[in-house]
Structure formats: structure tokens, C-alpha cells
Amino acid sequence: MSALLDVVVELAAAREEVAQRKAAIDAKRKAFELTIAEESSVYAFRVATVSVLDAQARALAVLAYDASKNKTPCPGLSIIGKKHYAIDEVAGLAWAREKEMCLIPESLDVKAVQKLATVQPLPFVTVTEVPEVRIASDLLAALDAAPQPEYTV
């Protein structure tokens, strides 16, 4: 029992040190981000500008292509033919079953089976309990609240 308590106490101390170091890093990161706030703001604005200009260039290039059928409406831009498919999935599935083509085998929804197995037994599911260790998130408080065993020397 004392070996377990020793490890738990050491774990609590290690967790506390990790939390303190994370807080220090977060504070330094926040201070650093304040030093680059203006540059970050300009960068975000320029990224948004690029996005808007990209959309405008694409739209204008398509309009130019529609008018002239020129696949290079502007230097640096070209138009390619890309196929788009709209599929009636119900009719497609009926066809695929008839032809025995383009089918993906049905698969078992494991999460749904697990939920169902919690409320009713299923002949193909075996449920067992396995011990699982859970450790308090605030281990220091849990240790402080617990009665301390007496040790004799």
C-alpha cells in the first residue's frame, strides 16, 4: 500500500509541475503574441484579400471563357474541362444490384451494436467487464482530502 501511495504522491507532484510549466509557457506565448499582434492582423487581412481576389479572378476568367471560348483568357490563367456527375443514387443502386457492379459490401455499425447490447442481449455480442483505473484530475485535492494512513517506523 505504501508503494502505491508513494507513486500517487509522486504523480500528483509531477502533474502539478506540468501544470505550472504549461501556465508559464502560456503566459510567455501570450506576451509574444502581443508583440506580433499588428503583423498578425495585417497577415489575416492579406489572407482574406487573397481569397476575395482569387474568387474574383476565377469568376472573371469563366466569364471571359464563356464569351470567347479561349482556354487561356489571361496570362497565368487557363480553363480546363472538368466533369461533374449528378447521380440518382436510388436508380444507381438498383442498377448496381442488377448488374452486380459498383457495390460496396454492407458493413456493421459497431457503435449502434454497442448501444443496443447495453439494453438487450445480442447472440453475437459478448459483454465483459474489465477493470479500468481512473485517476482524479485534481490529484492534489484528492490526496489532501483523504485520511492519511499511519506509518510506524
Give the helix/strand layout.
Layout: H1 2-35, H2 37-68, H3 89-99, H4 110-119, H5 139-145
Description:
The protein is an all-alpha fold and 153 residues long. The protein has helices at residues 2-35, 37-68, 89-99, 110-119, 139-145. It is flat, with a radius of gyration of 32 Å.
Mean pLDDT: 86
Count of runs of 4 or more consecutive helical residues? 5
Alpha carbon gyration radius: 32 Å
Helix content: 55-70%
In terms of DSSP E residues, the strand content is under 5%
Q: Unreliable segments (pLDDT under 50, ≥5 consecutive)?
A: none
Name the shape in a single word.
Answer: flat
Based on secondary structure, the structural category is: mainly alpha
Largest β sheet strand count, sense and barrel closure: none
Comma- or semicolon-separated keywords:
flat; 153 residues; mainly alpha
What would you say about this model in short?
The protein is mostly helical and 153 residues long. It has helices at residues 2-35, 37-68, 89-99, 110-119, 139-145. The longest helix is centred in the first third of the chain and has 34 residues, at 2-35.
